[in-house]
Structure formats: structure tokens, C-alpha cells
Design a protein that fits this description.
Blueprint lengths: L2 E5 L3 H13 L3 E6 L2 H7 L8 E4 L8 H11 L4 E6 L4 H9 L2 E6 L4 H14 L9 H8 L16 H10 L5 H8 L3 H15 L4 H10 L6
Parallel strand pairs: 1-2, 1-3, 3-4, 4-5
Helix pairs in contact: 7-9, 8-9, 9-10
């Protein structure tokens, strides 16, 4: 059975999660309030197999913690556990090294499946995050800088693309850019055609790969 560490600043939720993990037969090595505390508690002689990592934490959030773990302990499997179900948060966590991503309101059976899948396959493909998306994000770094594929964009398209990489809805982006939602639909459809992508995830991936936004 894998050794597991939990990092979440919500103590009650974390304690409940720890009890659930133990009830599944796993060992909880320790719990941490944030990434900084997690790093301080890591024992190089007894590293966890899996870290259940929240995103929104004080001092050192899940994004920065995942980056540090990927650089220093790439063998530890990170399972992002968050309330955020938006595409940008998912992409960032997978890009920074998470092997899976589930929501905090998931059923216990999904957590059980995720832990098992991480140990058996090295990743967890949930309905929220497809295997294709994980593969694409992890391969961004392996494909070079990708700048040879950079498509010329006008200023408004670039501005729209940057907003696409935030948590704003398309309607909120329209408000920010002082245009109608129909105009935003036009920008989106034009970029879908120019960049040969079909989803907002594809737009975000293009922007990250080509340095239009940094994560």
C-alpha cells in the first residue's frame, strides 16, 4: 500500500480526508497546511509515494509546490485535489507535474480509483481530465519551443488569447475588452481556425507553448 501525504490548509477537511485515506488501507505519513510546511516535513529517507495536493493554500500554493516537487522529487506522484474545475487550473497543475486531478466534492470511490491508478499506471484519467489532455500538456516541453509554429495574430486576438488563459468566462472577457459577446465569439472562432484547435484548452495550450502567457 502506498505512503501518502496530504497538503491542504482546511484542517477539518484535511483531517477527514486523512481518515478516508487510512480507511482505504493506506498510510498517511504526515499532513501539511501549505507547500512550505510540506517541503520542510519531507524526509529524504522516507518519501511519500503520493501527495494529495490542494491548489489554494497560503504561503506556498499548489502550483509552486508542484513545480518544486517536479524539480526535486519527480518520483513522487502528485494528485491535485481542488475545488477548481476550470480548464486553466487543470492545465497549470498538469503542466507543473500533477499526474491526476480530482475535485474535492468527488465521491470516495473516485479517490480510491485515483490512488490505485496512480500506483498501477502512474496517472489517473478522470472524466474531468482526459488522457489526451495529460499527454498533450506533458509533451509541451518535449516538442521544443514551438515558435516555428507561431501564427501571426493582431493585437485584439492576442489580448483575447491572454484573457482566455484566465478564469474569466467569455462574457466577462467581452466586458473587459468592451465588445459584445458576439464579437468575442468571432475572435474565438477565428483563432480556432488559425491555430487549428477546437477548444478553449487548445487555445490555452497554444498560448503557453508559444510564450504568449506564462504560468
Amino acid at each position: 500500500m502506498p505512503n501518502i501525504v496530504l497538503a491542504d490548509d482546511h484542517v477539518l477537511l484535511r483531517n477527514g480526508l486523512a481518515e478516508l485515506v487510512k480507511s482505504l488501507g493506506h498510510t498517511v505519513l504526515f499532513e501539511a497546511n501549505n507547500g512550505k510546511e510540506l517541503i520542510a516535513k519531507l524526509n529524504p529517507l522516507l518519501l511519500p509515494d503520493i501527495i494529495l495536493l490542494d491548489i489554494n493554500m497560503p504561503e506556498m500554493d499548489g502550483y509552486k509546490t508542484a513545480q518544486w516537487l517536479k524539480a526535486n522529487h519527480p518520483g513522487i506522484k502528485i494528485l491535485a485535489l481542488s475545488m477548481y474545475d476550470n480548464e486553466t487550473a487543470i492545465i497549470r497543475m498538469l503542466k507543473y507535474g500533477a499526474r491526476g486531478y480530482i475535485l474535492k466534492d468527488s465521491e470516495p470511490i473516485e479517490l480510491k480509483k485515483a490512488i490505485h491508478s496512480l500506483m498501477e499506471k502512474g496517472f489517473y484519467y478522470s472524466e474531468l481530465v482526459s488522457g489526451k489532455l495529460i499527454h498533450a500538456i506533458n509533451n509541451l516541453e518535449d516538442e521544443g519551443d514551438g515558435l516555428q509554429n507561431l501564427v501571426p495574430l493582431n493585437d485584439r486576438e492576442t489580448e483575447f488569447l491572454k484573457y482566455t488563459c484566465t478564469e474569466l468566462t467569455y462574457k466577462e472577457i467581452a466586458d473587459k475588452m468592451f465588445v459584445s459577446p458576439r464579437t468575442i465569439d468571432g475572435y474565438r472562432d477565428a483563432l480556432f481556425e488559425k491555430l487549428h484547435v477546437k477548444t478553449r484548452v487548445g487555445l490555452v495550450m497554444y498560448a503557453i507553448k508559444n510564450g504568449i502567457v506564462t504560468v
